[in-house]
Amino acid sequence: MSKFYTYEELRERFPTREAVTQARDAVASFLEDQTVSLVTTQLWDYEDPKNPIAVVYGSTTWGLHPDIGEQHTRRSDVDVALRCKGSMGYNPLSYNIEEFCNLLSLQTNVPIEITMVGNIGLYQSLINPSTADHFRLLERFFPNGPYGKFRRLMKVDFQDRVDDFNDYFRQMSSYRHLPFVDSRWIERSETMKILSKLENFPDHIIRKALGREKMLPAPDTKAKIRDVFFGFPYEWQLRTEFGTTFSSMFTISSEYEDMIDDVSKGLSGRAYHEKLRKSGFNLMELARSIYSKVGLNIRPLLRIVRIPKGTPVIILHHYPGSGSADVTRLEDDFGNPKDGVSVKRGYDKFATDFVTIDKGLEFVKTDIPISQTAQYDRDITRIEDPIDPVNGWFTYKPKRRGYCSIKACDEKTLTEFEDECKTGDEWKVSQKYYRLYASDALNTKHTRVPKRLLEVSPSS
After folding, report:
1. DSSP letter string over 296-323?
2. How confident is the model at residue 363 (pLDDT cuts 50, 70, 90)?
3. pTM of the full structure
């Protein structure tokens, strides 16, 4: 989380990106030494000496990867995850680590935040899904590091993401009335921390939204998550409602960066305070406008529309060595994995009934039409967006098994499919349409196709 500074802090030690890097390295080195000491003295029954009990994570961590480079800014903090045991969050090194980090923060003016991870009483309130998402990315880029084991301690990763959103909004709404009436608020570090929370408010919302859709980029820096969010080519109510507000808050952040530079060029304390007071008020008002629109439930704002309700679609079901197809009409918007796919066929079949006659049982076709409703997966694990939004297909994985491809089609294709199903064998028609469209759906030039699907598909 980016830091806001009092004028005195800026005059005492001007923030630099190098200072953040040095603080990160100092913390990482200290944590390594402490782990070695812990194992040597056997103060804790530690199951894996190669896996540290505390680790640096967050934006500063990406700089440790040789192919990525430093991603943090001069205002970034250093995040530390500390493994704990028991209902009281026991860790024999917690005091040493906290004391070292507090002292280092005072010396460098770099904020250092410690998060407890493990089976502890306040577990749910300390770890949120966004943290677990970040550790999942670190695990992928640092496969030999400790991040995988840390992430598996975060069972909160599986909690309802909508609940997490609502909890976060309730927490942030407590800052809607800042102590700005006090003329000396701009001289207090505690108020600067509140400003930091308000400034990071839109980025945290974006990060949580992308995490819910499994769309987080790596590295998951502010610049990259904003690019993904604003560059998403489909309708997203959250962006429609708050995109302009978010951009206004980002502008305040940029202006504050310029304000910091102005202090180094001789900006007076009075002028700095006046500018900071204005920025603080603007951040608070913009945050209030978000609270007022969200209300008690953010779920409607998280809705994504990749293909609108009522659109004719082709759905391909891929099985090892075979597949089937359906051409139908969406009963609901196709967008979020949690909403899945819901369709209804637009044609009727005739019911088959049993009728008793003198010669025994015989099938007789009645005049009773039955609407053929097909409820597809309402909960899918992931949606892969096409590389080419015009020519590509969406690929999704149902929880039951296999993979599916879906794409909008025209009314003519829907009518032709329905007519063939009415007059012929539906299964044969389904296989015919699968063979007709499978190669296009699995064309990696315009569609993102999972490697596993390519290996088992009949067209591979």
Report:
1. T--GGGG-EESB-TT-EEEEEEEETTEE
2. very low
3. 0.84
